Fold these 2 entries.
Entry 1:
Amino acid sequence: MKKQAVKARIESAIRRFASASSSRAYALVPQSLTSGKLYEAHVLSIVIEQLSTQESFQITLVNSRFIPLKSSPGPINRSYPHFQLRRGRNLVAELWTDVKFTSLSYDQRGPSRPIQRGDYHELDIVVTDSGVSGRPRHSQIWLGVECKNTGYTKGLLKEILGIRRELSLLQSPKPTHFTRWPRSQVPAEPASCLMVFSTDVGVAQYSSPGEVFGIDFQHEQI
Amino acid sequence: MTNEDYREILQSTRQMLRQAGLGGVDERIMSDMRGSEGAFWDLMYYLKHLTEEVTLGSDVQLGNVLRRVRRHVRTESGEAVEGVRVTVSGEDRQRYDVEHIDFTPNPELGEIAQEFRALIDELNEDHQRNSNQ
C-alpha cells in the first residue's frame, strides 16, 4: 500500500463524514415536541448510565432496537419496547418511558372505585417492579424522573411536589431499592426516588423543598 | 510502509479531522488512548475508534445519547441500539401524519464506516505481509 493513497482515502471519508447530517423524518412536527423528546432521550441515557455503573444493573432493551419514547403518556403496554434491569440473572425491575401511574390517594380511597382523571399522573421515566402492566400503582415505582427542557418555574415546582405527595407519605428515611444512585434512603413511604432534570441552571433555586420531601433536582444541559 | 509512514498518516488524519470541524472527535479518541503501542497499532486504534464515531453520526446530541446507551444496554438480537423512536399518539398521529418519529444517524454514515473498516483490513494485511518478509 502507498502512503499517499491511504491518506487520500482517509481524507475522502472524513470529508463525507463532516458533510453528512443526521437524518430526521419529522419535518412537519413542531420543534417543541422534537427538542423536548431529544432532551428526554438525553436524560434517559444518563439514567441508564448511572443504573449500569453505580448500581451494576445489566440492562437489556426488549421488543425494539430503538430507544422508546412516546409523544403522549399512557399505561404500560407489555408489547411496547422497554428496558429490563437485571441483578445477576434475576430480572428485578423494568424501565419504561412516558407512563401514567395511579396515585396514593386513589389507593387510599379504595381502588375498586371508578378511576377518574385526577387519580393518575405522568412521569417521563419510571423504574418499576418487573411484570407490571396498565397503570403502575404508586407503590410499584422505584424511581420517577421528570425532564424539563424549559425554564424552571414555581408552577413546575408545585407540580413535582404534587407528584411526590401522590407517590409517598413523608416519613423518617427509609431504604430505597438502590444502593447508591440516585440515593440509598429517602424520607418517604413507599420509598420511591424522585428526580427532576432541567436545562435551566435556575432549577437550583427551587431545590430546598426537595431536601425535606426527597426530590433530587439536577441541572443538566444538553 | 514504515513506522514513519504510519505516524505521518495518523498525524495527517488528526489534522484533517480538526480542519473539518471535528476536533471534538479527535479529542475524544485521543483522551481514551492509553500510551503508545507502536506507530502501526496507534494508527489502528485511532481508525477503529474513528469508525465507531462515524456510526454515531455528526449530530453531537444524538451521538452522545447513542454512545452512552450502546455502552450500557444490550438488545435481544445483540446488535447495537439504532436510534431513538418517538411513538406518536392517536391525536398527534392525525395532526402530523406520522406514526413515529425516528432520530437516527444518517445511513450514509454506515457506508463511510464501512470504508474505514475496509481500509483497516487492508492496512492489517499489508502490515502482516511486511512483518513476514
Note: The domain at 32-219 of chain A is CATH 3.40.1350 (Trna Endonuclease; Chain: A, domain 1).
Entry 2:
Amino acid sequence: MKWVKSLTTDLMEIGIVRRLVNFHAFQFFFIAISLLIFIMAAISIIFGVKHPGFNFGMVFTWVVWWGIVIALFVVVGRGWCMMCPFAALGEWLQRLSLWRKREWVLGFNFKYPRRLKNLWFAIGFFVVFIFMDNGYGISNSPDLTAGLIAVLILGAIWVAFLFERRTFCLYHCPLTAFIGISSMMAPFEIRRRDAEVCRQCGPKACFNDSEHAYGCPMNQYQGGGMDTNRDCILCTECIKSCPHGNIKMRFRMWGHDLWARRKGRLDEAVGAVIIGGLVTMVSLFLVLFLPPLKSFMDTILPAGVPPNDWPRIVSVGLLYLGGLAVSLFLMYGFSHLSRLFSGVKDSGTKTFFTHFGYAVVPLGIMKFISDIIDHVFRTWGAIFDVVGALFRDFPFNRVIAEEVTVKQLMTANQTYLLQLVLISIGFGLSLYVAYKLAGRMFPDRDIAFRAFLPIGAFIFVLGMAALWALSAAL
Amino acid sequence: MTEEDKKNQEIPQKPKRPYAGGALLIAITAFIVILFTGGIAYGVQSVIGGGDENEGILVGGVREFRISASQWSYGPGIIRVNPGEAVRFIVTSVDITHGFAINEMDVNLPLAPSGEIAHEVVIPEDIPEGTYTMYCSIFCGIGHPYMKGSIIVGTPGVGIGKILPYAATLVMGGIFAAFLVIGRRKAR
C-alpha cells in the first residue's frame, strides 16, 4: 500500500495530508480547540472549588495536559507547542492576524541578542519551576496555578511585542528546554527534501516569509539542513511557504536526532542530563532522604505554616538541587572514565559530556511517562467526576463533586509491571543512543566500544535509581 | 618539500592504545554497575521497605489508625488489618494538599493542609489475603508517584511485588550485557 510506505518516506505524498497541511488555518484549528479548553480550565481554576482534587481546571492541567505534553514526545515531538494558546496570544498580537499573512508586524521586532541564543535561561526557568511546584505546590494550589498561567500569558505577549518571531518559545518558556530536548526522541520530522533545490533557492521563503505564508516562527532555516526537532513546533509554515514544495514530513526511528545531529551542544547536553536526573536520581534522593533530612531541619530551623514551613522547603530544595548536581557530576565523572577507557588524549572530558549527554533522554522520558501512568491508571474515575461537577455549574465549577470515584484500570502490581516495561524500553533505547553516539565519535569500533562502556554504566545506574525508587512502596 | 607539505602528508595517527584490555574494562564497568545497584537496592529496601507494621488500636471494637501524610510518605507506612473488621482511618496532612486512597477498599479521602479527616470502612470478609496499596490520589509534585504505603490483610506470603524489582534488575542487566556482547563482537 502506497500510503503505508509514505509514512516513512514523505507524508506529503498522501493527498489528504497535503491538503490539510497546506490549509492556512491548519495550526489555528488546533490552537482554537486548545484555547477553548484552556479558557474553561482557567475559569474553573479562578472561580471554582479551591480543592485540586475536585477542580476541573486543576485535574485537567496537571494530569491530562501534563500527560498529553509528555506522551506527544514519543509520537510527534513538540506537538503541544503547535497548539499552545499562550504563545499563540503573543503571535496573534505580533501579526495582528489569526492565520492570514500580513505584510507588517506589531511591536519592536528586535533581533534577540546572539549571546543569549541558548538554553541556559530556559534550563534555569525549568529548574525553578519544578522547585516551585515541589516546594510550594503549584500543581496543588489553584491560586498558584492561576498565577503561573498569568505569568506565562504576560511573558509571551511582552516578549512577542519586543522581539521578532517566537523568541519567548525559543528561550524563555519554562518548558522549552524540557520539551525541545525531549522532542529529539520523537519518531517524526519535518525536513527539506533535496539540498540542491534549497541551495539554488533565491527567496529562502521557508525562513524569510513568502507572499502568502510566514517564515519559520522559531527562527529555523530548513534550507540550511535543519537536523533536529528541538525547535520545530510543527506549525507547517515552512511547508506552506516553500515555493518548490521541497519540505517533507515523515516518521523515522525513535531517538534519531539524539545521535544523528551534526554537533552536540553543552546547554542541550546539560538539559538532557537534568531531564534524566530529575526523574531518576532526584526521585531516589527524595524518597530516601527527605524524612530524615526534614527531621534534622526541624531541629535547626523555625517551623512555619505550610506551605511556608522552612524545614520542609529547605529539605526539598537541598535534595532537589543535590539530586540534579549529583546527576551532572556523575555524568561528568563517567564521561571522564569514557575518555580514559577510549585512550583519547586530544579531546577533553567536556567534549565527551557534550557528546554523550543526549543518551539519557529516552530513559528520562519513559520514566516521566511511567510516573504519570501510575497516577492516571489508578485515579481514572476522578476525571469523570470533575467533568460531571463542572457541567453542574458550567463554567464556574463552584460545585464540589459529591465523591471522587475509586476506579482503577490496573492494580498496584500490574501498574508497576507496566512501569518496568516502559523503563526497560527507555533504558534499552538510551543504551542504543549511547552506542550510536560512540560509533559516530570514533570510527574505530574498538575505541567506540571502550568509550561506550562507562556511559552505558551511567545509564544503568540511572535505570536502577528509577526502578528501585518505584519499588519503594510495594 | 615544505614543512606544510610534510604536515599534510602525515598519516593521521590512531589514538594511543588504551592502558587496559577490553576484558579488564568490562570488569571495571561491571564492578561499578554492581556497586551502584547494590547501594541503591539496599538503600531502598532498608530505609523504605523496612519499618515496623502498625496494628492500630482498638477503640470500641473499631481498629483505629492515626496516619500522617506528608511529602511524600505516610506514617505509619505499613499497617495490618483483618478481613471482616471495622477500621477507622484518621488521616492528617502536615504540609500541602494530599489524598489518601485504597482502591480495593473503596477509600479516597481528600486531605487539606493541616486538616484532619476520619473515615470508617469494614474490610470485606471475602477480600483475598495480600498486601494492598494506600496512595496519594491528588497530584502533589515530583515525589507523588512514590507517596504510597502498604496495607497487609491477613498473613500473605511473599507477593510478586517484592520479587518484581529483582526480576527487573536482572532483565535490565541482561539488556546491558547484550549490548556488551554485541559491541565487543563488533569491536573485534
Note: The domain at 57-157 of chain B is CATH 2.60.40.420 (Immunoglobulin-like).
